[in-house]
Amino acid sequence: NLDTRVQIQSNDEVGSLAKAINDLSVELNNYRVNRSELLANISHELRTPISYLKGYAQVIKNGQYENEDELKIYSNIIESESERLAKLIQELFELSKMEEGMIKLYVQSVDIEDLVESVVQKVQLKGQEKGLILSMEIEQNLPIMQTDGLRLEQILLNLLENAVNYTDKGEVNIQVNKVKKGIQFAVIDTGLGIPPEDLPFVFDRFHRVEKSRARQMGGTGLGLAIVAELVKHLQGEIIVNSKLGEGSEFRIIFPLTIRNESEILDQL
Ligand code: ADP
Known about the structure:
By secondary structure, the protein is an alpha/beta fold.
């Protein structure tokens, strides 16, 4: 614990400089604490799939299985844990790039209806397998958006995948409307919902409502953290509403046209 705070004795310029130094010192300390917490989380998250991989590889090596079916189950676990590990590494890399401000946006004309249809298509099979109704309510004659279409797709896909994953029965609905500030996308499900005490933290890295449940889904706990970062980059805002046992609703509002900042590569 490094306390580098300066005593403030006056209200003049030296006093305000001292205050600025103190604020900076508190911020730096918070950063240190967050960083070491994050590193602890990352190493824990990496160790878990690795211990599964090692454990089941040993089981197979030592022939500790009764029959072919059991062998298949263990091999499947090895396969899905490897996939999770790869996803985790890829997502961590993506998050750190975003946080360093190192992602480039490719702004283009985006037809909202086409984009939403293609995203829904991607989760259709999974939804059908679970017996869910997937529906779209897209307002007519929406204007063309000027934004990064691929990033927008990534955000919506993430929310839709979560909606399908965390819904056992009922419906997943995506609504798109023109609003005062731009375009509003809402992903609404009739799923498991999120307890109120977890709601403020769902966008935090590695925050999961129920660890065992999330693990079964193959989740990494980074999906919504990535969504939140991407939404920020696309100059939007996101809010979540949810009731345990009833369902969840993620609403995002994006400006119709993204402000063209220096780091944004405008292809038009
Ligand atoms: P994960 O990779 O574990 O899904 P996310 O960051 O995408 O991680 O989500 C964080 C947690 O928020 C999840 O573990 C899940 O418990 C909860 N969650 C996210 N979306 C939904 C949803 N639509 N319904 C219920 N719970 C959700």
